[in-house]
């Protein structure tokens, strides 16, 4: 959970008038973001960086005074998003998700603990004949549109110099998981090459050979032929290794694969696991 401050709180932390904080924010000297209602909000990391840059003395205990002392109720947040996906508009879904970031959730927390579980529940409802396929598709489309907007808004401008190729293999048409991976990597400073879904494995290998990305992320949700999938992954893994790339796979189908280490460098069961792996592997 990221700590978020108001203009008044930042003024108290740094020891200036609130109007001064607003002026700094409006000039771009102090980073801020706006809530849907137009209020300025400040992240703890940006306040600390600003204070250090301009030689303001801010004792740690003062910052801690304003830190959030509660943990988010992910179950409730997920259930609310679930309802909006079934009954709300495209904008309702986006505004709700964006408001959670304004309230202090990181994009990683939002995607891993709210968005993905909400869509998983909707998928289960369809599998159990509680909703129709048309309802499931509409809900998925709403979430996809919201994620595309959030990915664009929260893509980190300062890049870490690393490049990732994100793709889903042939016959894989579930785009949402790939969009979540792409957005989180961008949010953590990666340059993302987004190839999309239903990519023939020869095309994926060609992309790896020509682009030589640091990381290759494959998303697999449904597998028609496991032996064919393993052969494809083996070929891609070999090409990635030759290009100096690291191969990571994720998705529901990847969880069911045995001897997974023979076909990939890493299997991620969550976005959090993927980001932890990239930080340890690439030191970024």
Task: Pick out its properties.
Multidrug-efflux Transporter Regulator, Chain: A, Domain 2; Methyltransferase, Methionine Synthase (B12-binding Domains), Chain A, domain 1; globular; Rossmann fold; alpha/beta; three-stranded antiparallel beta sheet; single chain; 284 residues; five-stranded parallel beta sheet; 13 helices; 56% helix
Q: Can you offer a commentary on this structure?
A:
The two termini are 20 Å apart. The chain folds into 3 domains: 4-65, Multidrug-efflux Transporter Regulator, Chain: A, Domain 2 (Orthogonal Bundle); 74-153, Methionine synthase domain (Methyltransferase, Methionine Synthase (B12-binding Domains), Chain A, domain 1); 163-282, 3-Layer(aba) Sandwich (Rossmann fold), CATH 3.40.50.280. It has helices spanning 7-14, 18-27, 44-53, 60-65, 74-87, 90-102, 107-127, 133-153, 176-187, 201-211, 226-243, 252-255, 271-282; strands at residues 4-6, 33-34, 40-43, 163-169, 191-199, 215-219, 246-250, 266-268. With 284 residues, it is an alpha/beta fold. The model has no long low-confidence stretch (mean pLDDT 90).
